[in-house]
């Protein structure tokens, strides 16, 4: 009888230990990041959250599946719709997502596919990395911010005005 109890105890312990092992992430698995995507991108790159939000506002009006094909802004209703449009057009010159990442310039360089750039978390992090690269250059702060969008002075100035308006809107609605 005592041997039977020990056997049952060992069997129960093995079952509990086995379930812990099966439920625990392995080194090959990644634990899901549950942080807000904007906050995660800000924290991971050091880009101030209000600036990151202002850029997303100026670029896509905070629309996660926004596309810009050949200068035409398209606000898709779903990720699937955005993928369908990108597949049909089959162009590398497309701006994608919240941060309007230009796939031709950045997709391959960042090792990301068009589909990956439609993920808001991935898009925000990629955009924050691009912005950080721009901000690390020397020169006027607004020129460096504007360089995220364009190297041409006229476009950069117009863009900076949009970012500034978006920044003020973000600050105005920020909970205090």
Write up what this structure looks like.
This protein is 62% helix and 7% strand. By secondary structure, the protein is of the alpha+beta class. A four-stranded antiparallel sheet has the order 2-1-3-4. A hairpin with a 4-residue loop joins strand 3 and strand 4. The chain starts with a helix and ends with a helix. It has nine helices and four strands, in the order H-H-H-E-E-H-E-E-H-H-H-H-H. The chain is globular and about 40 Å long. The N terminus is likely disordered. It has a single domain, classed as Lysozyme.
**Strand sequence of the main sheet, in spatial order?**
2-1-3-4
- Amino-to-carboxy terminus distance: 67 Å
What is the typical, i.e. mean, pLDDT? 84
Number of strands: 4
Strand content: 5-15%
CATH-defined architecture: Orthogonal Bundle
Given helix and strand content, the structural type is alpha+beta
CATH topology grouping: Lysozyme
What kind of sheet is the major sheet? 4 strands, antiparallel
- How many domain units? 1
Helices, by number, come to 9
Helix content: 55-70%
- Broad shape: globular
N-to-C SSE series?
Answer: HHHEEHEEHHHHH
**Which runs of at least 5 residues are low in confidence (pLDDT < 50)?**
3-28
Rg value? 23 Å
């Amino acid at each position: 009888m005592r041997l039977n109890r020990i056997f049952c105890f060992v069997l129960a312990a093995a079952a509990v230990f086995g379930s812990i092992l099966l439920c625990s992430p392995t080194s090959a698995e990644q634990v899901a990041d549950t942080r807000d995507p904007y906050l995660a991108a800000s924290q991971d790159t050091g880009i101030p959250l209000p600036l990151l939000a202002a850029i997303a506002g100026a670029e896509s009006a905070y629309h996660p599946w926004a596309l810009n094909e050949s200068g035409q802004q398209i606000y898709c209703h779903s990720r699937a719709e955005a993928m369908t449009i990108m597949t049909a057009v089959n162009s590398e010159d497309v701006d994608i997502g919240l941060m309007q990442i230009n796939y031709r310039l950045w997709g391959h360089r960042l090792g990301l596919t068009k589909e990956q750039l439609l993920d808001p978390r991935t898009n925000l992090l990629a955009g924050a990395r691009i912005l950080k690269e721009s901000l690390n250059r020397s020169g006027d702060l607004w020129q460096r911010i504007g360089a995220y969008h364009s190297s041409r002075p006229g476009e950069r100035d117009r863009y900076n005005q949009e970012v500034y308006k978006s920044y003020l809107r973000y600050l105005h609605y920020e909970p205090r």
